[in-house]
């Protein structure tokens, strides 16, 4: 990791809250100078020099899977231009593709050369860089910014505080997000092959899969999307693990100890089940190599029937289905009524309740010569005008106002797929702030029965999540060594799991891999256990029920 030159204490404390791409109305509408020098005694104060050309700033950010359409310039479009106008700056964006983001993000951090602003959903790496002098503490900016406070509450700031006690990050809020996660299924295929009934056990689901596979041999019933080597099992590759209460890369609290799911008997049986489905041709033979594009294509064209995902990804929208998707209906599967005998307790196969913030956040570099102007970008990201532009569009073009209610114009706003990319700028508001406008648009165009089923599924998942409570890992503070090793540990899990499923190693050799994992990475979970036992009362107050499991 590159070391960063420390700025003066005055400047470090003057720039104290990090944000990625959060829009908020600027407190000063004047244009900043290209050669301005901030008054360091007043965080957020206007530059004390004559105005000239707008200050040039650079922002590195991810598109969060919402790529810009062909012909759209990330640094010059109606939404980013609103931010630039409100902040009074000339803002240049670097936006790597979703698949490449983490690699380029880590390379940027290790290079020691940072742009003015950085957005990321990997706070651990950002905090490590910040503690070495890479990002500034933003608390004083936050305390004097009514615009940002309207979006990000003091509680959210506390939750986003680094383990070292600093406010490097302005987090993304998550208060509008539907709670929960689980297995989504092609309901139209359930209607076709199972009279619209959800199977009640893993064996029942496997029987259903076999029935579809026999009728439609070309269907890729189970597939997978590889995000990166750290989390190579995702989406279509996770339903079986979820039903066994043993998601990869996750943990459970059992008998007062934190245990890696990878080391559980439930995980081993889930791997054996996946191996069986792979051998039968039900699991996609390319499950270990599909990138985002390939996985999306297979979902659309090869009848992938299942995926594990978060509830907020199933907010109904007014977007028209693609021609090849007209017959498809994705719905949220209820919990099993009968779990595998190996599962110690069904609560382990239920989703957690989320935090009021996500891992997304925006940071200001200590290398920035214009931290005040960088803060104005964050304020612009919090502005009501940006919120309306992102989630509703333009009045008269994308929506109308009837009384005190916004009414979407069919096919406009977020229902227009050419506008969907603007959601990636909701760095402060949270992507799920689209819920109201999306649901209003969905009610106009969606089949009523399909809409009702979706809304009922969201309600059901939320109930599961509230029963389980929040997860320990959102709050536990691990050592630098443990944080550094987590990605390596996840990669170990991916490789061993893939090899066992594909028959490249025997299950006995897989057992040896599990033992090796415990020797190499068991200390991570010992640290979780110690933190949990040392902070039980505090964690209970945060809604972490699993501390008593």
From TrEMBL:
User: Which of UniProt's keywords are assigned here?
Assistant: Signal
Is the keyword Signal assigned to this protein? yes
* Family annotation (InterPro entries): Bact_solute-bd_prot1, SBP
Presence of keyword Signal = yes
Q: Where is the composition biased (Polar residues)?
A: 29-38
Where does the UniProt annotation place the signal sequence? 1-24
Pfam families, alphabetized:
SBP_bac_1 (PF01547)
Region: Disordered; residue ranges are 29-53
Looking up PANTHER family in the UniProt record yields: ABC TRANSPORTER SOLUTE BINDING PROTEIN-SUGAR TRANSPORT (PTHR43649:SF17), ARABINOSE-BINDING PROTEIN-RELATED (PTHR43649)
Protein name as catalogued: Extracellular solute-binding protein
Organism of origin is Paenibacillus residui
List the taxonomic lineage.
Bacteria, Bacillati, Bacillota, Bacilli, Bacillales
